[in-house]
Structures are given as C-alpha cells and as structure tokens.
Amino acid sequence: MSTIKIKLVKSPIGKVPKHRKTIKALGFKKLNQVIEKNDTPQIRGMLKQVDYMIEVVE
C-alpha cells in the first residue's frame, strides 16, 4: 500500500472543534510535524476536511 506524507503548517488553535479533532486523529502533536500515513480513502477524506491547515509533502 502506498503512503502519503503530511505536514501541519497552520495551528488548529481557534479553529472549528471538529477540525481540531481531525488533526488530533491524524496524529499531529505540534506545528511543522511531518507524519506518514497509508493512502486510503478515509485518510484522504480527513485531509480534504482540514486542507487549509496541512500540506502534502511529496
């Protein structure tokens, strides 16, 4: 299965509570952290919801 690297570029402080929970569920703990996840439709949906706070690193 392919993987995708994601970087948190904006802070979730003051954002919609549902989006803050999505960031936490993805596994982010701090700003500018890069994590690697399996490229599944579920993860893609989570990324689409919070696309204004993250950056996909290729």
Question: Quick gist of this model?
Answer:
The chain is an alpha+beta fold and 58 residues long.
Number of domains: 1
Mean pLDDT: 96
How would you classify the helix and strand content by structural class? alpha+beta
What is the number of helices? Answer: 2
Shape: globular
Fold-level CATH name: Ribosomal Protein L30, Chain: A
What's the CATH C level? Alpha Beta
The helix content is 25-40%
What is the annotated CATH architecture?
A: 2-Layer Sandwich
Main sheet overview: 3 strands, antiparallel
Write up what this structure looks like:
One of its GO terms (cellular component) is cytosolic large ribosomal subunit. One of its GO terms (molecular function) is structural constituent of ribosome. This is Large ribosomal subunit protein uL30. With 58 residues, the chain is an alpha+beta fold. It has one domain: Ribosomal protein L30/L7 (Ribosomal Protein L30, Chain: A), CATH 3.30.1390. It has helices spanning 17-26, 41-49; strands at residues 3-8, 34-38, 54-57. The two termini are 16 Å apart.
Give the key terms.
Ribo_uL30_ferredoxin-like_sf; structural constituent of ribosome; 58 residues; alpha+beta; Ribosomal Protein L30, Chain: A; globular; 2 helices; Large ribosomal subunit protein uL30; Ribosomal_uL30_ferredoxin-like; ribosomal protein
Topology:
Elements: E1 3-8, H1 17-26, E2 34-38, H2 41-49, E3 54-57
Antiparallel strand pairs: 1-2, 1-3
